[in-house]
Amino acid sequence: MDQSLYNIIGYILLPFIILRLIIKGIKTPKFRQRINERLGLITRIQEPIIWVHCVSVGEFKAAIIIIDKLIKQHPNHKLLVTTTTPTGSDAVISYYKDKVVNLYFPYDLPLIIRHYIKQINPKICLLLETEIWPNLIHELNKKNIPILLINARLSQQSKEKYQKFTSNLVKQSLNKISLIVAQNQNSANNFIELGAKNNYVVITNNIKFDQNTTPDKIISNTLQKIIGKRKTVIFASTHKNEEIQIINEYSKNKCAINALLVIIPRHPERFNIVYKLAKNANLNIARRSENRPSQDVQILLGDSMGEMMSYFDIANIVFMGGSLSNTGGHNMLEPAAFAKPIIFGSNIFNFTEISLDLLEQNAAILIQNVSDLFKIIIMLLNDEKQCKVLGYNAQQYLYSKQGAVKNTLQLINKFI
């Protein structure tokens, strides 16, 4: 696929994409709000702009430590943080208030991108992880605006998809990026195999090793009051098809589990769905938002935003979601920071190197299915020593890998 065909397909799909937002907005109004921003219809920003793009909550949380330091180091610049999802936007606004500008990321079509760039005129654009947008990169490159792909990652699976469908287009885009700052050697190799030039790819490690995981102790204490003295198993960032597996398997094993299960869906639109799934299974479920003691509750639904670090803070065992579905897993480093025993499934292609390291260092447990998951949970609930060993090893691994933020900032500052 070349760029012309990419653009034709994009323009054809645009009305359907907007319609999908409007339909999703029936249940979740935030999806249909601020569509003008996605179409590039934004007000001109006069201040010098450093543009950081984070797709959703996970990328934003990882980028906070970079954004914080850029705010301090460049007081004469305004930070623009763009997101793609409403939850990502909410997280930015909640954390920074008016300290940064938050807009939705524009659709990657020439007319939209050109107007968007004209209105913000950034000094630099920082894309996170795997955000390769051909028109954005092309237009910024034409204007000699530096583009850095930071904390860049590319799994084998993603590389093969690019090679199959958009090899030439991706190669052209990669070679218009000023610098690719890769998380690890595997990702660096994959970018080079896609066509990036060796001297435009550097490795600094994963900034997620350095992210701030300090919990809000007021929230932690509130959660502890809700939970009481019971042991707690956290199912973090779960996805469709995972929750039903967890609920059904728990129903089979509940007599052997003397602990509270806390299920925290990745997407807020699943809160009510998960609640109904548990009710239909005749389980006693409560909502975190109800803020009431849970002595007689079997499952607590984590239906509040921005509290994940506090959940990890009070957890006894953590299962990382997105790993029993074909999602690629979520950040195991967050529970590692709290020295918690970590369990994950086999679909962890977003964290291949980290997951292998954790397993090699006896710092996590890999399961193949939900039946194995509950066998491990029951075993760990009855083996405090093993929990401590796994948690300690995970935390030490995290500490050993820190330093990526300092190196990444040094590279960014060379282009500002």
> What structural category characterises the helix and strand content?
alpha/beta
Side-by-side strand order of the widest sheet: 3-2-1-4-5-6-7
Give average pLDDT, whole number: 94
Give the total of beta strands. 14
Biggest sheet architecture: 7 strands, parallel
Low-pLDDT residue intervals, each spanning 5 or more residues: none
Please count the helical segments.
18
Terminal Cα span: 33 Å
Proportion of residues in helical segments: 40-55%
Percent in strands: 15-25%
Rg, rounded, reads 22 Å
* Basic shape: globular
Describe the structure in your own words.
The structure is a single chain. It is built from 18 helices and 14 strands. It has helices at 3-27, 35-38, 57-73, 86-96, 110-120, 134-142, 156-165, 167-174, 185-194, 217-227, 242-253, 271-280, 308-314, 333-337, 352-360, 370-381, 384-400, 404-413, and strands at 49-53, 78-83, 101-104, 122-128, 147-152, 179-182, 201-203, 231-238, 259-265, 285-287, 299-301, 317-320, 342-344, 365-366. The strands form 2 sheets. The chain has a 7-stranded parallel beta sheet, with helices on both faces. Helix 7 (156-165) runs parallel beside helix 9 and helix 10 (217-227) packs across helix 13 (308-314). The longest helix is centred in the first third of the chain and has 25 residues, at 3-27.
